[in-house]
Specification:
By secondary structure, this protein is α/β, with parallel strands linked by helices. It has nine helices and eleven strands.
Length: 260
């Protein structure tokens, strides 16, 4: 385990202002940096997730995580200086629990069970979960999106999800809570450079935005960036955002449901 270095790599000094000049930047703090495979990594994440936002490096992108509550959403807002009108997705560990919140009558045939969605691991699934008029920091027009992850990251999320099972109803969910961790790309909201995909920039973001824990990952994807978003409707599947391996995932959607 090691603390974040205070020296910014030379190749990133020219963009340090992207975080440091934000008027609402919190006081810098020591960031604990640890590889996600380290025996202590899961325990550190579990110890902090209720009370603060944390950073986790995935093979394709670096992600901010927070508790699936109104307080968690507020922490992400503060870290990103969130623009109005944005909503947060979640990291999906327990796929059955994610699908269980859906209004399956508004989902297409072939995408109504956890087994159906498993083949889309590596994407966001936007599914109907509430009345179309309901809006919150995690639900837009009655829909919520979760990113389906695998490997050690999924093991981490499954562990952290268990902390929030049986919690009192939180207003952002308009009923039964969903336990997936709130997630968003690690950057300032709306920044033209987009998502952070390197650990060097993640360290800089953590230092300037006061994030106390960064879980790193040595595995790297051949395609980088935020995950693609697929929206599932009664008779169609739509692409709401492009991302890594999009063409591969498009082929996993039945032709009758494709809108592209």
């Amino acid at each position: 385990m090691q603390a974040t270095r205070t020296t910014v790599p030379a190749t990133y000094r020219s963009i340090a202002h992207r975080f440091a000049t934000v008027a609402t930047a919190p006081a810098p703090r020591r960031t604990v940096e640890i590889d996600i495979h380290h025996p202590d990594a899961f325990a550190l994440a579990a110890d902090r997730i209720r009370t603060e936002a944390i950073l986790v490096q995935f093979p394709a992108v670096v992600v901010l995580l927070a508790a699936p509550t109104a307080e968690g959403a507020a922490r992400l807002d503060a870290a990103k200086v969130r623009l109005p009108g944005k909503t947060y997705g979640t990291l999906v560990g327990n796929l059955d629990r994610f699908v269980a919140q859906a209004d399956t009558e508004r989902l297409p045939e072939g995408f109504r069970t956890a087994a159906d969605f498993a083949k889309m691991t590596g994407t966001f699934a936007r599914i109907p979960v509430r009345d179309v008029r309901f809006e919150s920091p995690v639900i837009r027009s009655g829909t919520h999106q979760g990113v389906l992850v695998d490997g050690i990251h999924r093991k981490l999320v499954i562990l952290l999800e268990t902390q929030f099972i049986g919690e009192a109803p939180d207003p952002i969910w308009d009923g039964d809570n969903y336990t997936g961790l709130l997630c968003t790309s690690a950057n300032l909201s709306g920044h033209p450079d987009g998502s952070i995909v390197t650990v060097e920039l993640a360290r800089l973001f953590a230092r300037e935005r006061g994030i106390g824990l960064l879980l790193t990952c040595s595995e790297r994807s051949s395609e980088l960036g935020s995950y693609p978003i697929f929206g599932y409707e009664r008779d169609a599947v739509r692409i709401h955002r492009e991302g890594p391996f999009l063409e591969t995932f498009k082929q996993r959607i039945p032709e009758a449901l494709r809108t592209w």
